[in-house]
Each structure stands twice: as C-alpha cells, then as structure tokens.
Amino acid sequence: MLRTALILAALAVPLAAVAQQRATPAQPQRLGTHQSWIAATHQENGQKVCYAFARASRSENGPANRQTVTLTITHRPGGRDQVAISVGYPYPRQGEAVLSVGTTEFRSYGVVQSSAFFQNGQSLVSAFRGGREAVVRSPGPPGRPTVTDTFPLAGFSAAYDAINRECPANPAARR
To answer: Where is the signal peptide, in residue numbers (predicted)?
Structure first.
C-alpha cells in the first residue's frame, strides 16, 4: 500500500510540471530579421500565427507619450495578408488611416483602440514588394494634427517569404 502511494506520488510530480508548462502561453518565436522587418510566429487559440512587422523609421506630429508604432502583416488560419498599423495612441471614433506606397493609396476599413486595419492585403503585398517606403497618415489625438508615420520596406520581401514558408497557404506544402 505504501509502495503504491509512493509510486503514484512520484508520477504525479512530473505530470503536474508538464501540465503547468502546457498552461503557460507560448512566447513568440523569431523566424528572422530582414533589414527593417522582423518575421515571427506565435500561437493563438492553439493555432499557429505568422507575422512580419516593421517599426516606424520616422514620425511627425505624434504625441510625446506614444508607444511603439508598428506596421504588421499577419497570416492566421482564417485569413492571410492581414495588414494593420498600431499607432501607439487611441484612434478617434470613426478615424481612418491612409497608407501610401508611392502614389498608390489604401484606406483603412476599421479602427479598434490604437490599431487600424486595411483590406486588399494582396494588393498591399504587391505594393510593399515594389516600394521603398510606406507612409501612413492617421488622425491625431483630439486637438492634434494628422500624424504621419513612415516605414521602410527594405527587407519586406524576405520577411514575407519567411512567414509564407512557416505558414503556407496550403499547410500540406510546408517544407
């Protein structure tokens, strides 16, 4: 009886440690740095999500206490080429961001807190691949002028290719 209890106790400790490790959320895993862009992956609801992002290289009229400004493209199981900007301050209600690459403009379709989201992800990818920089103009905080953020596109293609390899459109095609 005592021997059985000791064996069960010895098995319970490692099992509890494994259960605790599984409950801990997985940290993002960097796939690589490609000039101005970083490619990475993380888990959302048990599903792999791949994304690439760049930080603004130049900002004009942003508030002093602003958080990091990032432009991100994400592949989720339910959607690919999801493009968003996080501006580091809350957008005004009904705010709209305009993203330009050269003379081509893309308008956001919605904002949530400090992020604006863009449609036409495939068109944006094509523009990013052929462009030098992306410029985003966003409404400033109340009483402030329009905020302009500039993102270098150097390294975008390599970072995008990295997330495509890690999260292919057809998972069976993954190398």
So the answer is: 1-19
